[in-house]
Design a protein that fits this description.
Elements (H helix, E strand, L loop, with lengths): L2 E10 L1 H7 L4 E10 L5 E7 L7 H7 L2 H6 L1 H8 L18 H9 L5 H6 L2 H4 L5 H59 L13
Antiparallel strand pairs: 1-2, 2-3
């Protein structure tokens, strides 16, 4: 599962560099995309300027981010964190300080923590790999419960199908009995008016 981490970084500002005649830097955005355990892609680009339109900013955003990661970038720019998966806050074994540290490296969900590489977790210290192991164990346990729940529901479904078939057979037998009784009754007269003599 790919994940992205945004952070601030200095980036050379071409407009200011031309105006000043020397290298000038502005506040930029560093986007680290973790493709899998071994592959990362990093983009660095100028952040939004106060005096520019949204279209001008979007023109600087790398195509990979514009196409696949804009909701996450917009959330990061507005100071929010998007969690694709189970939010870290609901895990009793992760403290609020650990949640803040994980968010600082771009991890906002238990699924992202379980999939994080050693390189992403390195700034968090030795405890980070233990948290990753706990996240993996929790997800595996949840998946196991889901599988056993599906199996239990399949068993219940088969039992209900069996009961339904038995009830259908019983209903058919009753209908046959009623039809036979109705056929027998047509030949006999019940009490009441005597047969007319002609």
């Amino acid at each position: 599962m790919a994940m992205i981490q945004f952070s601030k970084c200095p980036v050379q500002d071409p407009k200011a560099t031309i105006e000043a005649g020397k290298p000038m830097f502005g506040e930029g955005i560093d986007a680290l995309i973790q493709i899998d355990k071994y592959s990362n892609i990093r983009f660095q680009f100028m952040g939004p300027r106060k005096d520019e339109t949204e279209a001008a900013f979007l023109a600087r955003v790398p195509n990979e981010i514009r196409v696949n990661w804009m909701p996450q970038l917009n959330a990061w720019l507005s100071g929010q964190t998007m969690a694709d998966g189970t939010p870290l806050e609901i895990m009793a074994w992760i403290t609020p300080a650990q949640v803040a540290n994980l968010r600082g490296v771009g991890i906002a969900s238990v699924e992202a923590l379980a999939a994080a590489s050693d390189g992403i977790l390195a700034p968090l210290g030795m405890n980070a790999s233990a948290m990753r192991s706990q996240a993996k164990a929790w997800l595996d346990e949840r998946a196991g419960k889901a599988i056993s729940s599906v199996g239990r529901l399949e068993d219940e479904n088969q039992a209900l199908k069996g009961q339904l078939a038995e009830q259908a057979e019983a209903l058919k037998a009753m209908q046959e009995q009623l039809a036979a009784m109705a056929h027998e009754d047509t030949g006999k007269r019940g009490p009441g008016r005597p047969k007319s003599k002609e």
